[in-house]
Amino acid sequence: MNKFLFLFWLLTAAPLWAQDSLATAEKKTVTYTENDIRIDQNSVVIPTKFPSDYKEKYKDSDFQYEVQLEEKSLWDKFKEWLAYWFRKIFGLSDMNVSKNYVEITLKVIAALIVIYVIYLIVKIILNKEGQWVFGKSTTKKIIHDDDIEKNLVHVDFEKLIAQTLKEGNNRLAVRYYYLWVLKRMSEKSIIEWHADKTNTDYVYEIQSSDLRSDFQYLSYLYNYIWYGEFEMTEPTFRHAKKAFETTIQSLRL
């Protein structure tokens, strides 16, 4: 019984002792006087100043702690759109793979365009006429700004063609044959010669159905041989030569 009373007294008295101890500790204060402060009078304190351009040293990417998202251009958006459709059409599993395909495709297209432009420039330089660039349409103008075509009525095409064949220029001979046909039809008042007219214009002026059919075929041969980008064979030239001479002979009657 006495043991229980002692234990109860010990538990109730312990908090009171702790409060007294804390109160005593709180009342203790530390007071300093001038004698306790030691002043170093021998040392010189020099204040440090930052240089005026110190911020310039911290503009590198290593000191950029905020991620700044760049605004996408229209070209970037277009490539992303292509990548989306590439992935959808070809069933690509990854968007990055699709973007790589887009980059390769665009580079190939750009290279082909550059090659084609260079090809056109070289051909224009080598071809004095330069008219092949615009196709082989039957509505192409026959007349060009040179002395022969300006003076079509006064040209002796028979001698001119003979000289051209002697030089081995069969393609140019075909051109002269065609102009010779136009001269013959103009002399017989079948067509009205004008430098700005096209071969289609002359087709509408020809009244004879047979001659109109022959002229359309000769126009086809002329466009095919003169404006065509191929090496003309000897059989092809002989066939064209015969067709032109036949029509020219018929116009002499």
Automatic annotation (TrEMBL):
The keyword Lipid biosynthesis does not apply. It comes from the Bacteria. The chain crosses the membrane at residues 104-126. Keywords: Membrane, Signal, Transmembrane, Transmembrane helix. Residues 1-18 form the signal peptide. Pfam families: DUF4129. Residues 178-245 form the Protein-glutamine gamma-glutamyltransferase-like C-terminal domain. This is DUF4129 domain-containing protein. It comes from Flavobacterium sedimenticola.
